[in-house]
Specification:
This protein is an alpha+beta fold and 212 residues long. It has two domains: 113 residues, no CATH class; 75 residues, Transcription elongation factor, GreA/GreB, C-terminal domain (Chitinase A, domain 3). The chain has three helices and five strands. The termini are far apart. A five-stranded mixed beta sheet has the order 3-2-1-5-4.
Length: 212
Amino acid sequence: MLHSRNQTAEPVIQGQFEPIVAIPPANPYIIAIGQMSELNRESGEPAFPGIDKMTDLADKIKKKLKDEIAALEHELHSELPKELKKARAYGDLSENAEFKYAKERQSYVSARLGQLHQRMADISMLNLTNLPKDRAAYGSRIAVLDIATNAKIEYKLVTVEEADASKGLISTSSPIGRALLGKKVGDEVKVTTPAGIKEYEVVRLVTIHDDE
């Protein structure tokens, strides 16, 4: 059976920020997943705080990606070929809506699988030790001041998979997330939104290292 054509995009923040559809490339400040089993040679404790939590997060993200990959591969190699065969039996393909939709779905599924496999590779390569201790990066909690309205807004920088705008969890690949990466308290950032350019000042920063 064919799936709905409506695709679910990443939540947006108060309608200001564009949804994330494409899987972003690796960024050393986004998330630290690779090489997480390192231990302090003297104490036997994790070499970096939060290793267990990050490992759990990595496992959850990878499981989510693997589940979607498995479902899409089944659709691509089993369901869609049957739908295409059935659609061809209706005759004239130039005016065959079922055939056209199945082909479009086939192209989308193939592209999505490529994105998911790349995302899996990116996650495996990233390293916790690359996350800065004095600048905004993955896991940082940031309070910013809207310069125009004087309103204070708090965010936490997370991966695409964790993003939930209603809880203030924004992806590091979203416009505001990208703008905040690498910033310190006192820095000002400009974000281009559908409503125009928004200006913010970073007024508080708690990195993933401080949060432990």
